[in-house]
Amino acid sequence: MAGLPIQGVKIHSLLALRGTPLGRRYENGDVSLMSKEEYVTTVCDILEILPPATVIQRLTADGYKDIFLGPSWAVNKMDALNSSDWELKRRRSWQGSRRDSL
User: How crowded is residue 48: how many other Cβ atoms within 10 Å of its Cβ?
Assistant: First the structure.
């Protein structure tokens, strides 16, 4: 995707929502969703290879409060965003920093 002529991307975790097939599987314990740590690592890996000019339109999902089931960490949008910022700082990295290494 990093090599395609796109202008923006939306990234967010898979959410289990009440009343959906995935929601039923999640409630039954048949499926697990990403931990916050896995999500933050994945987001930062993606950001590092996307060109700096690519607009990041979304990094977390929003809404669905009345039918949301999980993952529990996704309720706190700001924590997920801040955790991604902190991870990039920890890595001494930024959007596009690994683009040339591919």
Answer: 19
